[in-house]
Amino acid sequence: MKGLTGCAAGLLVGTALCALASAQPARAALSPEQQLLLNIQREIVDHSLYKLQTADVVRGALTALNRDLGGAYDGFFSEEVPGQFGQALAMFMDVLRNVSTSAPGRAAGLSVAGLVERSMGAYCRSLDAYSDYLDSATAHRLESLSDPHYIGVGISFRRVSGAYVCRPFEGAAADRAGVVEGDILLAIDGQSTDQMPLLEVAARVSGQPESRVVLTVRHASGVVEEKPMLRERVRSNPVEVTETTQGVVIVVRRIDEGSYEELKNIVKSLRPTRPLTLDFRGCGGGELGVSVGIAELFLPADAPVARLETLKGRELLFSRNRAPYVPSKLLLLQDGQTASGAELIIAALHHHPAFRAESRGQTTFGKGLLQRQIQVVRGGILEVTEARMYGPAGEFWDGKGLRPSSSKTPDEP
C-alpha cells in the first residue's frame, strides 16, 4: 500500500480506515500523525456540547486549516470532502503531506504533525469563542503555570471579539508598568496575539523570575505603547473581607478551591443575619463545581443553583447545604469583567426569594459556556465546550451578560 499514490491510495486507505473506525482500528496500522488526529477528534466527539460526528471533525479541520493558512495553499484543498469518515481522513492526510512537501511548505517548516495540530486548533476556534487546541510544544511551556511559585507580571486577560482585554492586578508588574484595565493586548515580545490561543498568551507572559517581557497594548484613546516589565512571583489574595458597622464586604477575585475554602471559613465566622456584600467585580469565574459550592454556602438545601445543557441532556443542580448562612440583606457587585462561574453565582443568589438580593454595577461579561481541559494522549491541550450554563429561572447570559437589578452605584447606601 505504501507504493500507491493519488486517488487509488486514497480510496483503499479510506475504505480500510472506514471499516477500522467502526471496530476500533489497530493502533500499529496508523501513522503517528493519524493517531494524533484520531486522539484529538475522539476527545472532541466524546465531550463537545455540539454533538459532533467523527466525519464532522475531519471535514471541519480541513476547511479550518485552509482558512488558517491564508489561501496560500488553496490548490491543495478540494472543494468537497467525502462524507464518509475513512475517506475524509485519507484525503485529510494526503492534503497535509502535499502541503508539507511542497516548496512553500518546506520553506515555512510545515510538518505533517504540526499541520495536524494547527488544523485542530483552527477547527476548535471555529466552534465558539472558547474552544481551542494548544499544540504540544506550547502545552509543554504551560507546565510552569501549575508551579506553586508561578512567575508572571500579574495580569489576566479576557477574549472579546477576538481581542484580549487586559486587567492588571493592583500593584503587580503590569500595573506598575502602566497597563490599564481595558487595554487591548496586541503583542507579546513582538509576537502578534491575533489568533493566538488564550493558553498560549498565558504561557508567553510567564517565565523565569527577573526575565524581561514586553507587552504591546492599545489604550482606550487609541494610543499604542510597548510596556517592558520584569516577571516576578505573583501574589494575589483571592478573597478579602472587610467588616464595617453597616455590614460585611467580601471581595472574591477568583474562583478556585483555595478561594472556596477561605470563603467557607469566613462565612462560618460571621455573626448571623448581618448585611452582606459579595463583590465579584473583576472575577473571571472558575470551575463549575467550585462556583456551585460557593452559591451553596448561602442557599438552603433543595434550592435550585443552576441548569446545565450537556451532550447527555439537561441537568438541574440543587443546593445540598442544610445550614446555609442567611444574611439580613444581600448586595451583589458586578462589572464587565465578571464572568462565567461568577455570573452563575450571581444568577443563583439573585433568583432565591429569601434574599431579595440586589445587584449593582455594570452588565457582566457574558460567558455562559463551560469548557473541559483535556491533555490529549501524545498531543497538546484541548479545551472543548461541554455545557451551556443557565440560571435557576432559565437565564442565559452568554454573549449578552447579566444586567444589574439596581441603577444605584456600588457605593450608594
Descriptive account of the structure:
With 413 residues, the protein is α+β, with helices and mostly antiparallel strands. The chain folds into three domains: 6-127, no CATH class; 151-233, PDZ domain (Pdz3 Domain); 239-369, Alpha-Beta Complex (2-enoyl-CoA Hydratase, Chain A, domain 1), CATH 3.90.226.10. Helices cover 33% and strands 23% of the residues. The protein is built from twelve helices and 18 strands. α3 runs parallel beside α4 and α3 packs across α6. The chain is globular and about 75 Å long. The model is unreliable at 1-27 (pLDDT under 50).
Structural topology:
Blueprint: H1 6-21, H2 32-47, H3 54-68, H4 85-101, H5 103-107, H6 112-127, E1 132-134, H7 136-141, E2 151-152, E3 155-160, E4 163-168, H8 173-177, E5 184-188, E6 191-192, H9 198-205, E7 212-218, E8 224-230, E9 232-233, E10 239-244, E11 247-252, H10 257-269, E12 275-279, H11 288-296, E13 304-310, E14 313-318, E15 329-334, H12 341-351, E16 358-361, E17 369-375, E18 381-390
Parallel strand pairs: 11-12, 12-15, 15-16
Antiparallel strand pairs: 1-18, 2-9, 3-4, 4-5, 5-6, 5-7, 7-8, 10-11, 13-14, 13-18, 17-18
